[in-house]
Amino acid sequence: MSALDRRAVLTGLGAGTAALATGVADARIRPGDLKPLIGPGHKPTETDEIGLWQQMNRVEEEVAGSNLLIKDERLNAYLKGLIGKVGDPAAKDMRIYLARIPEFNAVMFPTGFTVIFSGLLLRMRDEAQLAGVIAHESSHFLLRHQIRQWRDMKRKSNVLTFLAMGAGIAGGATGTYTGDLVQLAQLGTILSLFRYNRQLEAESDALGVKLLAEAGYDPMSMSETWDQLISEVEWSARERRKRPNRGYSIFSTHPAPRERLNDLKLSAQELTVPGRTYDRGRERYQAAIAPIRHMLFDDQVKLNDPGASQYIVQTLAKDGWSGTLQFYQGEIHRLRNSPQFQAAAAQSYAAAVAYPDAPADAWRWHGIMLTKQGRREEGRAALQRYLSLAPNAPDAPFVRQMVQS
Amino acid sequence: MNRHLLALGAALSLALSGCAGVGGGGFGSGYSLIRAARPVNVGNGAMTVMAPREWNRADRSFFTDVRWVEDWTLNGPYLDGISFVTALPHDKRLIREEYKADRQVPKFRSDMTAPEIAAMIETLYRIRGSSVDFRTTGLVPRAFLGTPGFQFDFEHLDGDELWRRGRAVGAVVDGRLYMIVLDAARSHYFDAALPDFEAMVGSAQRRR
Question: Radius of gyration over alpha carbons of chain B, in Å?
């Protein structure tokens, strides 16, 4: 376990994906064929699992004490409630931690705690989607995937497989976690859509979608999420004129992510009861993340990954445009920082300030863009509006000078 | 800039090359001594500053650094660093960027206003410094090199779970960016290096 240091894990990302491409059954796993392998209050009884749990308890202590966690009590209670709905039958044993890292990811640990990364919350359109991810992650726990994977890894001596698993399980599940949440976020289990053991992922998909449907959520919401993940990676790559490279271009002769998506859709259709109305919980979800929504957007958009950010904004806009979405659309264009996108940025800011929910920042950038276009008076008025909305903003002194000059 | 950010991001970024890490020993990763109280040319030589005490200048690597930026440190790049940006031209970056990287630090443009330069710096820290939280604490007008410029104050929480604090003082002169940036651990190290930073800002002169 300790032999797998960070570099080995990272090297494994490249070397290992090839190893994973072999020996995977293609048949879809039916949700009805899977049952949780553990019940409430599960405790390990065998020596190797006891050892793994002891290590994981130390990891959990570290995670629980991290200052990268988002502490908002209501939001954490909300997430805990969702596990209660879809994490049967061991829901009461599960813990959830929300880390402020802008990655589309979540990780389940073998002892039943999960780390949700804030980037995931930004991308979910409604509660059903988030519940789908949590159901999928819970299924890894309920099906004892981590210990099964860990034993499998020890049994095989093939070094490529060893590295691949180390990489795929993201350190989290096998104890290669190095105390670094940011790294964990970049290697976690959802991204394993592209690089993890597909048999286990397919199992988690199947059981997850069943748990989701049983909790009364639209079972299709889970495949929507996977679709968003794949599309976002593709948009991001297209922007930089390259092939999607998050570990799955190696599969180009074997389109695993899309196949899995199709399997998941079939399973969801199987579970959909005709005529029944399913809960999406959009309003509940929006209310729960409202206190941190701007922060989530800032954290993503300021990474200047315009393809990905653009995809996120467009996806969320399917539920309706708002001042916030228009504003961040402008931010994406502005950070692209090329002449052809400056005009697009200016337009987005202008559109944003027409909405009642436009953030104060939209007025500042609207004003700066107008000024740069030579429309000084209009620009000044917009900057003044910014100052009246945010008189104590940290940059107000500079903006005041811009207004006066 | 590069040295310090690499230190912040060292444990985190997948794309980092092995030799670009922290500390001495590796190829192109040494330091040289800066003497106190005498003018020193920094960056590409377009600016001189005077340090009130001895600092360590990080050697630049052809492969990872840009020639308009130079880094100094007192206690090593995890704890503190001052970066000098000298006459950065239009369409160039503060840092060498992989042309196909998903996340890219924006290029400097000669018509950038101070809020845009501040946003460019924020993006730099978020991408290269692995900052998960970045807060602007101030953006005020301030003369630099005898020109109207800005002072940008900020704080950031990085992937190594340490809060750091920074101050950038800069101005755009003849379409080129001149700037000095202090960035250091928020507890102790920022305050300890601030007087030196202010002395350097005060002593900075453009060389023609």
Answer: 15
Sign of the torsion formed by the C-alpha atoms of B59, B64, B69 and B71: negative
Three-class DSSP category at A212: helix
Q: Which of B103, B111, B141 sits opposite A304 (nearest CB)?
A: B103
| A203-258 pLDDT per residue, tens | 889 999 999 999 999 999 999 999 998 899 899 999 998 877 555 443 343 446 77
Distance CA A397, CA A387 (A): 9
Mark out chain B residues that contact chain A at CB-CB < 8 A.
11-12, 14, 100-107, 109, 111, 113-116, 118-119, 122-123, 126-127, 130, 132-134, 136-141, 150, 153, 157, 159-161
Cis previous bond, A257, omega within 30: no
> Which chain B residue is nearest to residue A187, measuring alpha carbons?
B14
Q: Does A403 touch chain B (CB under 8 A)?
A: no
Residue B91, Cβ neighbours under 10 Å: how many?
Answer: 11
Contact A398 B157 (CB under 8 A): no
- Cα A403 from chain centre: 40
- At A392, the pLDDT band (50, 70, 90 cuts) reads very high
Average pLDDT for chain B: 88
Helix, coil or strand: residue A113: strand
| Chain A residue at shortest CA distance from B112 | A372
Query: Across residues A90-111, what is the average pLDDT?
Result: 88
pTM, two decimals, is 0.87
From the number of C-beta atoms within 10 Å of its C-beta (0-12, 13-18, 19+), residue A321 rates as middle
Per-residue pLDDT, A39: 85
**A110-149 residue pLDDT tens:** 888 999 999 999 999 999 999 999 999 899 889 888 777 7
The tokens describing B2, both together, are 């590069």
> Of A369, A357, A293, whose CA–CA distance to A331 is shortest?
A369
Query: Considering only alpha carbons, which residue of chain B is nearest residue A63?
Result: B161
Instruction: Give the whole-angstrom CA distance, residue A297 versus residue A337.
Output: 18
Residues 317-376 of A with CB under 8 A from B: 334-337, 364-365, 368, 372
B153 has pLDDT over 80: yes
